Amino acid sequence: MADIPDELIKLEHSAEEERARLAGLTGDEYDEQCRRWRAAADAVKAAVTAYAEATQASPHEVEQAVEQALRHGQEDPAVE
After folding, report:
1. How many separate domains does the chain show?
2. Is residue 26, in this structure, part of any structural domain at all?
3. Which domain holds residue 45?
4. What is this structure's pTM?
5. pLDDT at position 80
6. Which of 9, 31, 37, 61 is the most exposed place for a label (fewest CB within 10 A)?
7. H or E stretch including 33?
8. Is the sign of the CA dihedral 29, 31, 14, 68 positive or negative?
9. Sign of CA dihedral 43, 37, 66, 63
């Protein structure tokens, strides 16, 4: 797949950060953070869909490429 725009990777990263913030929360705090996570995840999905349509790519393939790009960017280059 062609290069994935940084904006898609940033959106995915933000959604993952919101998901991670759920850890340890309960009750209303959990519910509020869950809403933030869902909003971030919805933004990722919308951006992936728009990019897929613009490039005539499969949304699933774009989503996979974004996730792979995010993981690759988070790897520690000192550890191999």
Report:
1. 1
2. yes
3. 6-73
4. 0.84
5. 45
6. 31
7. helix 27-55
8. positive
9. negative
